[in-house]
Design goal:
The structure holds 2 protein chains of 2 kinds.
Chain A (H helix, E strand, L loop, with lengths): L13 E7 L12 E6 L5 E6 L3 E7 L13 E8 L4 E3 L4 E3 L5 E4 L7 E6 L4 E14 L23 E17 L9 E4 L5 E5 L3 E6 L7 E5 L12 E6 L6 E6 L4 E5 L11 E3 L12 H5 L3 E4 L5 E5 L3 E6 L8 E4 L8 H6 L9 E3 L5 E5 L4 E6 L5 E5 L16 E2 L9 E2 L11 E4 L5 E6 L2 E7 L3
Parallel strand pairs in A: 28-29
Antiparallel strand pairs in A: 1-32, 2-3, 3-4, 4-5, 6-7, 8-9, 9-10, 10-11, 12-13, 13-14, 14-15, 16-17, 17-18, 18-19, 20-21, 21-22, 22-23, 24-25, 25-26, 26-27, 30-31, 31-32
Chain B lengths: L6 H15 L8 H45 L1 H13 L5 H9 L13 H14 L1 H7 L18 E7 L4 E7 L2 H6 L12 E6 L10 H11 L13 H9 L5 H13 L6 H4 L3 H9 L2
Helix pairs in contact in B: 1-2, 3-4, 5-6
Classes of the chains: A mainly beta, B mainly alpha.
GO molecular function, one term (chain A): protein phosphatase regulator activity
InterPro entries (chain A): PP2A_PR55 (IPR000009), PP2A_PR55_CS (IPR018067), WD40/YVTN_repeat-like_dom_sf (IPR015943), WD40_repeat_dom_sf (IPR036322), WD40_rpt (IPR001680)
Keywords (chain A): Repeat, WD repeat
Chain lengths: 449, 284
């Protein structure tokens, strides 16, 4: 099987590879992973957590001695990206939780990523240092300044090897541009600009300029009492640098062309599926709110996630989605309880595989689901410590909806709603996935024969 | 995992969420509060439509009673004949059975027979269970008007105040449900239903409706009434039972409503204060 190509998820057998994070009974809130992202080559994997930390893993070079072990991901760099802040003017605390991380393409030896909390986006440079200069003229080895009068000879400093050190430095800080909470960032394919999105506005930035940004979408009504929808996610088109989409809490997606106008309040395309009146309930508005939107790698399709489904849209067809996949429809009758315990507000993300043939999203009880778009088959897998033996094959799980429960099935009422998989990532070219389960990061890969 | 998908509990849960969000770390989450407000709106719409349906039925009852009174006033002899006629033909017609139950028919129907609505609707067990049914089947025949009722008698008076037009509607009804079951006596004599409509200054009625005012003040503080009031539902339930089938669910809801009261709503005046209720919700 060609890595990265889709294929039947039934044929693809997923194995446990690694798990990062500690096992603890009471999870520290700060350790809860809030975002996961591979870089464009898949060499690096970054996670952000609620405590404002970023941990970057790097894949080991594959070893010829152990061909069955594909490169493992090991910690490469850890740094504190954001700290809690206090807005004194509004008497509001600003959470340090990392909402999103996006990698920039690599130009040189250093790696760059954007990370954001509710209010501020930061550009981080992660670089290696394995040499240091020695032999300064004006400084001694401890760094103390020497009296120039004592210098009798001159020498050229040389670089000597040292232990590898990975350091992260904040190169740009993009702040004070958002009144509401930032929910998305997206790097443009021109690699010069990026956008940041909050509940009501989208701003366009130049990566080099931090004191200015351009507002390109503004849906704030003149009278806030007339507010009916908010922006929930936004993303640039992977190839067309003038095109982006944003999703709303009403379940619609708007595609905008920045060439049309400076302010893209008027969309070029509007994607929405009419609501099925037979499914109407108190919670219809909540479950139709889109929590994530992702372009396919090809740029031809869009994927959206709402509370119960994942939908694939063709950019050329606005009236309805191309495909709709039920993630956990058995929750439809439990919406009232899920409203009471706030689970109905959980924002699940969704991802494409490298060839856009399989899509993946998370669910409860540490389950995650994969849907093969070609064969229409789907599979439910679980991220748990019980299946954590190296190269252990993950067994498909099944939720029993009603009637007799078979031996391996789990009933809806036994699901653990505190164990939710909101964030997942798929390697850009291989069948390696990273799944964030609360404070643990699981890495699975397909079985190598 | 089951919870009561009922408008009132959803409203209180939603209000609690909005209140809690004010103290959450990170500031008010606009998206979440917007979604909660949608649930609030949906629950309120259902709640209001149910209440309006009740009022509508109450008004229908009043109209029916007015017609009955007019019929009675015309000619007692004619009425007796009509009454028999209508008793016989009242297989499914609620107003007809109401009329014949109310006025002095020549042949007093037995309790069971004369209460097609009451008995058919709830069955004898239900008759025994609930208070007003107990009074329906057991207690002696009541006096026609609340004003003349002996102390301790089960007298019900419902007052509806429309905040927008300041129209006060008072429905004094004795034991209409009893009329179903007990041997009929001249219950219509004292015109048991007095539909008094009068324009009134709200302040004038402040003393008459102390609970209502208290409730309204509490609501304006963005929180429901702290004190719980027993809903005097028997008056409304009486009306509903007379109209027979189709109202079982509404009556059950009334019972649930009473049970689920936990100080969240001043239920006695909820019916009367629809306008204020709307405004209280809209304030969010």
């Amino acid at each position: 099987m060609i890595p990265g190509r889709g294929g039947d998820p039934d044929d693809t057998r997923w194995c446990f590879a690694q798990v990062k994070g500690v096992v603890e009974v009471n999870v520290t809130e700060a350790d809860i992973i809030s975002t996961v992202e591979f870089n464009s080559t898949g060499e690096l994997l970054a996670t952000g957590d609620k405590g404002g930390r970023v941990v970057v893993f790097q894949r080991e070079q594959e070893s010829k001695n152990q061909p069955h072990r594909r490169g493992e991901y090991n910690v490469y760099s850890t740094f504190q990206s954001h700290e809690p802040e206090f807005d004194y003017l509004k008497s509001l605390e600003i959470e340090e939780k990392i909402n999103k991380i996006r990698w920039l393409p690599q130009h040189n030896a250093a790696y760059f990523l954007l990370s954001t909390n509710d209010k501020t986006v930061k550009l981080w440079k992660i670089s290696e240092r394995d040499r240091r200069p020695e032999g300064y003229n004006l400084k001694d080895e401890e760094g103390r300044i020497r009296d120039p009068a004592t210098i009798t000879t001159l020498r050229v400093p040389v670089l000597r090897p040292m232990d590898l050190m990975v350091e992260a430095t904040a190169r740009r800080i993009f702040s004070n541009a958002h009144t509401y909470h930032i929910n998305s960032i997206s790097v443009n394919s021109d690699y010069e600009t990026f956008m940041s999105t909050d509940d009501l506005r989208i701003n366009l930035w130049n990566l080099e300029i931090t004191n200015k940004s351009f507002n390109i979408v503004d849906i704030k009504p003149a009278n806030m009492e007339e507010l009916t929808e908010v922006i929930t996610a936004a993303e640039f088109h992977p190839n067309q640098c003038n095109t982006f989409v944003y999703s709303s809490s009403k379940g619609s997606i708007r595609l905008c062309d920045m060439r049309a106008a400076a302010l893209c309040d008027n969309h070029s395309k509007f994607f929405e599926e009419p609501e099925d009146p037979s499914n109407r309930s108190f919670f219809s508005e909540i479950i139709s709110s889109i929590s994530d939107v992702k372009f396919s790698h090809s740029g031809r399709y869009l994927m959206t996630r709402d509370y119960l489904t994942v939908k694939v849209w063709d950019l050329n067809m606005e009236s309805k989605p191309l495909e709709t996949y039920q993630v956990h429809d058995y929750l439809r009758s439990k919406l009232c309880s899920l409203y009471e315990n706030d689970c109905i507000f959980d924002k699940f993300e969704c991802v494409w595989n490298g060839s856009d043939s399989v899509i993946m999203t998370g669910s409860y009880n540490n389950f995650f689901r994969m849907f093969d778009r070609n064969t229409k088959r789907d599979v439910t897998l679980e991220a748990s410590r019980e299946n954590s033996k190296p190269r252990a094959i993950l067994k498909p799980r099944k939720v029993c909806v009603g009637g007799k429960r078979r031996k391996d099935e789990i009933s809806v009422d036994s699901l653990d709603f505190s164990k939710k998989i909101l964030h997942t990532a798929w390697h850009p070219s291989e069948n390696i996935i990273a799944v964030a389960a609360t404070n643990n990061l699981y890495i699975f890969q397909d079985k190598v024969n | 995992m089951e919870c009561a998908v009922d408008a009132q509990s959803l409203i209180s849960i939603s209000l609690r969420k909005i209140h809690n969000s004010r103290t959450q770390r990170g500031g008010i989450k606009l998206h979440k509060n917007l979604l909660v407000s949608y649930v609030l709106r949906n629950a309120r719409q259902l709640y209001m439509s149910e209440k309006y349906a009740e009022i509508y039925r109450m008004q229908q009852y009043e109209e029916v009673m007015t017609v009955c009174n007019e019929i009675q006033e015309l000619d007692p002899l004619d009425l007796a004949e009509d009454g028999e006629g209508c008793c016989i033909s009242s297989a499914g017609g609620e107003p007809a059975s109401l009329c014949c139950a109310l006025h002095p028919a020549a042949s007093p129907p037995t309790p069971v027979q004369a209460a097609p609505g009451c008995a058919a609707l709830h069955g004898e067990e239900a008759c025994k269970e609930q208070d007003f049914y107990r009074s329906c089947c057991a207690e002696p025949y009541p006096l026609p008007s609340c004003d003349f009722s002996p102390p301790g008698a089960h007298c019900n008076k419902t007052t509806v105040l429309d905040l927008d037009t300041h129209v006060v509607t008072t429905v004094e009804n004795g034991y209409l449900h009893q009329d179903c079951c007990a041997p009929p006596q001249p219950c219509c004599q004292g015109a048991p239903v007095l539909a008094k409509k009068r324009k009134a200054d709200f302040a004038y009625y402040a003393e008459e409706l102390p609970d209502f005012v208290q409730c309204k003040k509490a609501r304006s503080d963005d929180f429901p009434c702290p004190t719980s009031e027993q809903l005097d539902s028997s008056s409304i339930s009486n009306l509903i039972s007379i109209f027979g089938s189709g109202f079982t669910e509404l009556v059950n809801r009334q019972a649930d409503f009473e049970q689920s009261l936990n100080g969240q709503f001043c239920s006695k005046q909820v019916l009367a204060s629809l306008g204020a209720w709307t405004r209280a919700i809209v304030a969010f």
